[in-house]
Amino acid sequence: MDMSGLVSGAGGFIASAFVVAGYTMRTMIPLRIFGILTNVLLIGFSVVHHHYPVMVLHMILLPLNVYRLREMLLLVREVKKSVNSDLSMAWLKPFMTERKCKAGEILFYKYEKAEEMFYIVSGRFRLVESGIELPKGAIVGELGMLSPSNKRTQTLECLEGGIILSVTYQKVEELYVQNPAFGFYFLRLVSARLFQNLGKLEAQLAETGAQATS
Questions:
Q1: Reported pTM
Q2: Among candidates 56, 58, 49, which has minimal Cα distance to 9?
């Protein structure tokens, strides 16, 4: 019996099984881990059997899978850290697109269909109906994604020209689907920010009422 042929066939079968199993993964982190294992296995198999094109392919895919896995793990860590600290959503910046705004520009109107959220880099922006001016580093528009009707609850106006970053709800949903851990911490973060905003609004209303009666 040709043992080398038997070993070669078994190795090819195992490698193929890893590839097929990888396609059954539904979430990104297990998929990347399995992809890395598959790359390592096929590189070793290709070296032994001198399948150099396959070896080169998986030597290219291996660092790509490692990079994407690290990116997703860092994303989950940053979201988790934000939940337990300052509720910042700056971790979304790598997935956002830059946009310049002019004074007087309306970014969105109340009751308008909501499709994206914004991160304020510079300039001055105000929620018209409540009169609240948003500071640099603030995220606005994230609650529209969770609203049943996906409608804006206020109008956002640019008071002084500046730069914002935007990300579509579709992109956030992709991250959510790819990584359930991200989705869990994102929902906790948005809920915490909602209660924080309600607390600030109540404090502002109480202050306004006190000034009116004095």
A1: 0.52
A2: 49
Each residue of 16-39: b (16+ CB within 10 Å) or e? eebeeebeeeeebbebbebbbebb
Could you read off the pLDDT of 130-155 as tens digits, one per residue?
Answer: 888 888 888 788 777 777 778 888 89
Instruction: Look at the block and give the residue holding tokens 């490692």.
Output: 66
* CB-count exposure of residue 1 (10 Å: 0-12, 13-18, 19+): exposed
Domain 103-206 fold is Jelly Rolls (2.60.120)
Using CB atoms within 10 A of its CB, is residue 140 exposed (0-12), middle (13-18) or buried (19+)? buried
Domain boundary assignment for the chain: 7-80, 103-206
Are residues 69 and 36 in contact, defined by beta-carbon separation less than 8 angstroms?
yes
Write down the H helix ranges in 50-168. 52-83
CA distance 101 to 112: 19
